[in-house]
Amino acid sequence: ELRRALENSARPIESEPFAQGAGLINAPAALAYALEHHGKPAQDLPFALSVPSRGGARGIYLRDAAELQGPLTFGVLVQPLFEHAATRTAAEVEELLSLELQLQLGPTAPWVTTPASMVLLSAKERGGQTFTVRLDPSTLPPGAHFAAVQAVDATDPARGPLFSLPITVVIPHAISPPPPLGALTPAQLETAGDETAAPPALSFPLTLQGGVPVRRFISVPESAEWAKVTLRSGRMANGPHAVLLHAVPSARGDLPNTACQTKRMLQLRELSEEVVQLPVRGGATLELCMQLSWLANPAPATLDAEVEFHSYGARGRAMHAPTTRIGSADAFARIEVGAPLRTERLAPEAELTAAERALRPSSSTITAGSAELDVLPPSDAELRAAADAPGEQIHSMLLQYSFDVAPEGDAKEQPVLARVQSLHEQLYDAPLDSMLWRLDDANGQTLQYGGAMHDAAETKLKKGSYSISVLLRHPDRAQLTALKELPLLLRMPLPMPLDCVVHGGRGAASKGGHGGHEAVAEGWVRRGGHKDLYVCKPTTELPKWVSAGDVLTGHVALDKGSKEATKLPLAFEAPPAPVKKAEAADDDGDEEDEEVVGAALDEEAMACAKEARLVQEDVDELERSVFRARLQRLRAPRKAAPPAGRDH
Question: What does pTM read for this prediction?
C-alpha cells in the first residue's frame, strides 16, 4: 500500500526511463493518497505480472532485430499475491472469494494494443488470469522506445494504476550485409578479399554533454565476433576530455554483465583518434553508451564514431567460445578459422598461464544453527493463523579441504586463488542462502577469506600444508546433503607462461615441429577463405608441482596484436609424470653382471639341449617299437577261409 502511494503520487521528470522510474517522490502527495484510498478493495494487495513466453519476465523487452519482424502478440499472466498461511482461516477464504475487480487496461503508446477491460478474480485454482498485448514496432525509428500497460479501477480511476506492465522496444541501426561472393563479377572477385567487398562501417556523429549518457544501438551481423570502435575528436577549445565508453554486447541469457561488457575511460585530445576493440554476439544488438566526464572538463565535445565488425568464424554466436582442449594423451588441438566478413590479419599465439586443481572435501559436518539467531520468523499470515507458529530453522554445513604447496626453483612463495566454481558469481539466483570460505595455514592462522559472488585476491603461500573451510547455510537440510562432495577449485599462476606452438598442418603438429616444420607465420585470410590451425602441447617441462589431473589454462590469440578481441580459451590436461628409470651402476659392475648372466645362460642352454636329446631318444625308441610290432603282425600266417555254403 505504501509503495502504491509513492508510485502513483510521484512527480514525473524529464529523464530517460533507464535511469528514472515513476518519477520524483512527493511526500505530501503520497501521504494524502494513502489517507484517501486506504481500505478500498485490493488497495493493499500486490500483483505479480509475468510473460510466460519470455521466460516469466516481469515485462516485455525486445532488442534484437530477429525479434522485431512484424507485429508481435504476448500473453501476460496476472496473479494476486495474498498473504495467507498454509491453512487459510475463514476470513482469508472470504477475502479470496470476494475479489472481483473491474479493471480498465490502457497502453501509454499507440504502437501497443490491449483489450479495453478485464474482470480480475483471485483465479487461485487456475494460477492467475491472462490478457494479451500486441506490439507493432514497424513504424518506430532507431533508438529506445518505452511504454506501459496500466490497469486502473474502472469504478474509481482516481486511485491510479493498480499494476503496470513495462514495455521496452529497442530499434537498432542496421548495417548493410556484404554482397555474396557468388554474385560478384570476375573483376569484383579479384578484390573480394579487400575492404571494397566487406560490409561498410557504421559512422555517426556524437555531441556529448557533461554527465549525460548518449546511447546507440547497432545490429550485429550474424557471423561477427568482435567490433572495432574508433572515436575521432575535432577541435577542443577548452582542452582535452575524458570520455567513459560502456559497451553491452547482448541482453540475452543469464551471463553476468561483468563477463561480457567492456568499460574504458578514454582521454581524448584535440584531433586525436582512439580505437577500442570489444567482443560482440552475432545476430544480437550492441549497445554503445558514451558519457563525458564533467569532473575533468564539463564543456561539450563533438566526436565522430565509427563501428566496424570482424570475425574469424571460430567462436560462433556464443559470447564465450568453447575451450580449445588438448588432452593429456593428445599432441595438439585443432581450430578452424575463416574470414566471413572481411579480410582478417592472422598472427596466432598460444600460451598457458595458470594451473587449476580440483579438491574434494576431506570431511563434511551438517548442524542446526542457533535456536535464537538462525531461525527465520514466521510470516504475518502464519501468526494470524496460529500465534505460536514456529519459525524455520537454518542449517549449516562445514566442508574441510586440505592441500600442500611446494614452490619450485628460486620461488619461495606460490600464489593461490581459491574458488567454489559451481557457486561462483551467483547472488540472487544462488541455490544457497550464503557461502563463505576461509584459508588457514598449519598453525590455524587465517590467511584469506571470501564468498560466492566475487574472487578474493591471490594469496602467496610458502611451502607447507594448508586447509580451506567452506561454510554453507540453507533451511533445507537435504539441499546441504546433496552438496557434501562439493569440489573446490585452486588456481595457481605459473612462474612463466608456457608457449604452445601453432602449426598450419596436421603432420607438422603430429611431429611436434621436427623435420624443419615452422610455426604459422603472420599473414592474412581473405574474405571467404579458410585456414586450419593446430595448437601443440607445450614442449618445455611442466613445473614439478603440477600433477596428473591438473588443468593448465591460457588462451589462443588469433591476432596477437589484438589479444583482447581475438583470444579463445585454451586448456591442457597435465599427463602423468614420466616413469623414472633405475640409475645404472659403474662399468666394472656392468661387466661382472654380464659375465654372471652369460654363464647362467650357457648353463641353461646346456640343460635344455640335454633334455631335448633325451626326449628325442625316447621318441626314436617308441617309433622303433611300433615299427617292430606292425612288422610282426604282417609276418604272422593268416587263417584259411571256410568253404562256401557250409554252416559254421
Answer: 0.78
CA angle 123–129–132, rounded 5-degree value: 170
- Which grid cell sits at 532? 586450419
Closest CA to 309 of 333, 332, 280: 280
- CA pair distance 209, 302, nearest whole angstrom: 9
Q: How far is CA 159 from CA 8, 99, 152, 156, in A?
A: 8, 17, 7, 6
Burial letters 394-419, b for 16+ CB under 10 A, else e: bbbbebebebebebeeeeeebbbbbb
Radius of gyration for the chain, computed over Cα atoms and rounded to the nearest angstrom: 39
Local confidence band at 181 (pLDDT 50, 70, 90 cut-offs) = low
With cell 499475491, the residue in question is: 81
List C-alpha distances in Å: 521 to 332, 504, 517.
18, 9, 11
**Residue type at 409 in one-letter notation:** G
**DSSP line for 259-305:** GT-EEEEEEE-TT-EEEEEEE--TTSEEEEEEEE-TTT--S-EEEEE
In the structure, what pLDDT confidence band is assigned to residue 646 with cuts at 50, 70 and 90?
A: very low
DSSP run (H or E) holding 481 = helix 477-481
| pLDDT for residue 95 is more than 80 | no
Please check whether residue 454 is in contact with residue 532, taking contact to mean a CB–CB distance below 8 angstroms. Answer: no
Reported as a single tens digit per residue, the pLDDT across 495-543 is 999 999 999 988 888 887 666 678 888 999 999 899 999 999 998 889 9
Quote the pLDDT of residue 192.
46
Question: Do 380 and 522 contact (CB within 8 A), yes or no?
Answer: no
